[in-house]
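Researcher: I'd like a structural prediction for the single chain below. Treat it as a standalone chain; there are no partners to consider.
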Amino acid sequence: MSQDPTDVILPCLDEAAALPNLLSTLPRGFRAIVVDNGSTDDSPRIAAEHGAKVVHEPRRGYGAAVHTGLEYATSDIVCFLDADGSLDPADLIPMADIVARGADLAAGRRVPVTRDAWPWHARAGNLLLATLMRRQGVPVHDIAPIRAARRRTLLDLGIADRGFGYPLELLIKAGRAGLRIEEFDVAYRPRAAGTKSKVSGSVRGTLRATRDMAKVLRG
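Model: Treating it as a single chain, here is the predicted structure.
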């Protein structure tokens, strides 16, 4: 009997330039759910042409897109991956595997392959937030956009943030719940040409994301 595929949730906003290569390199046994978050390019069409299930979430926000994808997913273990081409989908294999073997959550720790892959302002904001999380007992070094966990586990955490604070709230609640978190080093490349970051592409975007995450820490 063949094993059911593992759903990979890809929040998407104007990532048409990255999707063809990203979706074509998704490992065997993984199934893409592209959650379009109001793209003005051809992202939904391109995603569908490359075999992805396309879901539309009109409420803007990373958390809104990710949570909608989680609701549409049907596999026991689900993965999350940015749709900008900066991460290698092959890294999902060991992350999903360790969840299957007993971990509650696998999280990526980005290792930039070039200096311009991760702008200084984004790296500084991430470092600050990760440091604050470790002080709260959450053993991670990155608010990474690549993760794997059991679907039911994530739903039971009751994550409320629908903006950029979603991944931070997920990690904090996982830590407070005593979940076993495993962190993996993952290569972090410059995003695909023709796409633009909503967070790390500008100091303003980084500050907006850090503000959303700071609200989670205060809560």
